[in-house]
Structures are given as C-alpha cells and as structure tokens.
Write a structure and sequence with these properties.
Blueprint (H helix, E strand, L loop, with lengths): L3 E4 L2 E4 L10 H5 L2 E9 L2 E2 L2 H14 L10 H11 L7 E8 L17 E8 L10 E7 L14 H12 L4 E6 L2 E5 L3 E6 L2 E4 L10 H12 L4 E3 L2 E2 L8 E6 L3 E8 L2 E2 L7 H13 L2
Parallel strand pairs: 7-8, 7-15, 11-12
Antiparallel strand pairs: 1-2, 1-6, 3-4, 3-5, 5-6, 8-9, 9-13, 10-11, 10-14, 14-15, 15-16
Length: 279
C-alpha cells in the first residue's frame, strides 16, 4: 500500500508529493517541525507538541497556520495508512513557503508549506541493557530552543556516535553537557536527578518536562542545574529521554562504564512511571 502523506491541504501518495525547489525549507532550513508518538492510535502529549510548534512559528515569524489544525490531520494520516491501532510516529513540518531565493522574507508573504507523514514505529528494546553514548562539541547555533529543521550539526554529531558504535552523542558547550542530538540528557547524583536548565541552548523537550513532572509527583529529588563534563564520572546513573527513546539508561560514556555499568534503579523507576502515563 502506498504511503499517504499530507501536503498543503491535500492527502496524496508519497511518490506524488511535490515541493518547489524554491521552498525556503529546502534553501535555508527556514522551518520548524514536530514528531508526535502514537501509542496504539492514541497520541502522547499532542497538545504540548502543537503548543511548542506555535511557539516556534512565532519565534521564526512564520504566519498562515494555526497548529491546532494539524491535530485532525495526524489522526487522518494514521487512518489512511492503516496505523489507527498501531504504534506510530507522525512528522509535521512547516516552512515559510516557496519564493524567489533571497535572504529577506518574501514580501508580500507567501503561504507556508505544510507537510505531515505517518509511519509505523517499533519501540527500542535497549532499555533492558542500556546504551552507549559519546560526547561531542556543541557546534549548533544559539537558538536551540526552537525546533527548526536546521539539524546539520546534530546529524554530524550523531554520525560521530554511529562511527564509534554508540547510540547517541551528547553535546558539550563550554564544559557543560546540554542534551543529545535528538534527546534530553539526565544524570543521577546521590539520588538526585539533574538536567540542564531550560534556556536557549536546549530544546524544551516534551519528554524532559514529563520526566521532571514524574520526579516531582513521585518523591524523586530533581533539579535543573548545569551538568559539567568533569562531573559525569561521579554520576550514579546517566540516562536519556525523548519521544522515540522514552527513558533510556546509559551504561557506557566515551567507552567508560557509568555507575555499575548496568541500568540503574532511578532510570528504571522513571521508565515504569513514564509508561504508566502513556495512553
């Protein structure tokens, strides 16, 4: 069955979808995106994802779309692709639209390009044994709090991890460990869960927020405070959080075992709590 995608108000087979070569998303990475996970056909934190998309559109001064309009689109994509009862991911992207190439915004404005697609998702089984990660320099721009499509630095860092036979790269700026290329990063020190403070250098991750909420609601001490690279060797546990990872224990960092070298109890407890919160 051909995959059906959404493009500018129409549902079309993927192979028939056409985007202009003058689209500013293609030319300048001038756009934002969201990835929402469906658990058996029920979306997790959809409203939060759409709210973050609205914030991103406002930050980039892209008009012409109300993100809430994409919620029924996401449901329709599940149905039309036979995923209504499956675990799936829906990708939603909005760019400033197509116009003659120029750095300044099109004047008058052009309609945004709106694209969405759904695909089946097989959850990772790595949480049982944990994963290996590396650190890499954070070469991204200074507005990492906006979920833009400009992900080249993330891709280069993740490729370093792949080449090192690791699952993820966590990014380090001025000695502070911020987040992964597509995940949030947490440490556990003397029973306290720590993650980098929310500022312009990290994405306001939905899973990061949920993880902190779960800590606070279940008596797990937590704080948003800078994590320094030279502190990590003293961590009891390290773990990642994200839409596709959920809560993922790290058992080796830069080739060195973390804690006991096995998934720790805090990450395990948070994974249980997280899965209990999913649809």
């Amino acid at each position: 069955m051909s995959q059906i995608v959404y493009l500018n108000g129409k549902y079309v087979p993927l192979e028939e979808a056409r985007i202009s070569p003058e689209d500013r998303g293609f030319l300048f990475a001038d756009g934002i995106y969201e990835v929402v996970r469906s658990y058996g056909g029920a979306f997790f934190e959809m409203d939060a994802h759409l709210s973050r998309m609205a914030d991103g559109l406002a930050a980039l001064l892209i008009g012409g779309l109300e993100p809430a309009a994409l919620q029924p689109v996401a449901h329709t994509l599940l149905e039309r692709n036979g995923l209504a009862g499956a675990d799936a991911l829906v990708y939603m992207q909005v760019t400033r639209g197509a116009a003659v190439r120029g750095h300044a915004f099109p004047n008058p404005p052009v309609p945004p390009t709106v694209y969405a697609a759904a695909r089946q998702f097989q959850p990772r089984a790595d949480a049982i044994r944990g994963i290996t990660v590396i650190t890499a320099p954070d070469d991204r721009w200074s507005r990492c709090n906006i979920k833009t499509t400009g992900l080249l630095a993330n891709c280069l860092a993740l490729q370093q991890a792949v080449d090192a036979e690791a699952t993820e790269a966590v990014l380090v700026r001025d000695g502070a460990v911020l987040e992964g290329t597509h995940t949030s990063f947490f440490g556990v020190f003397d029973g306290v869960v720590r993650t980098a403070p929310a500022d312009n250098y990290i994405l306001p991750s939905i899973t990061r927020r949920v993880t902190l909420e779960l800590c606070r609601a279940n008596g797990i001490p937590c704080e948003e405070r800078a994590l320094l690279l030279n502190e990590l060797e003293a961590a009891d546990e390290l773990f990642l959080a994200g839409t596709t990872m959920e809560i993922m224990p790290i058992v080796k960092l830069n080739g060195t075992p973390v804690g006991t070298g096995r998934p720790g109890p805090v990450a395990g407890r948070l994974l249980e709590l997280f899965r209990a919160r999913t649809p």
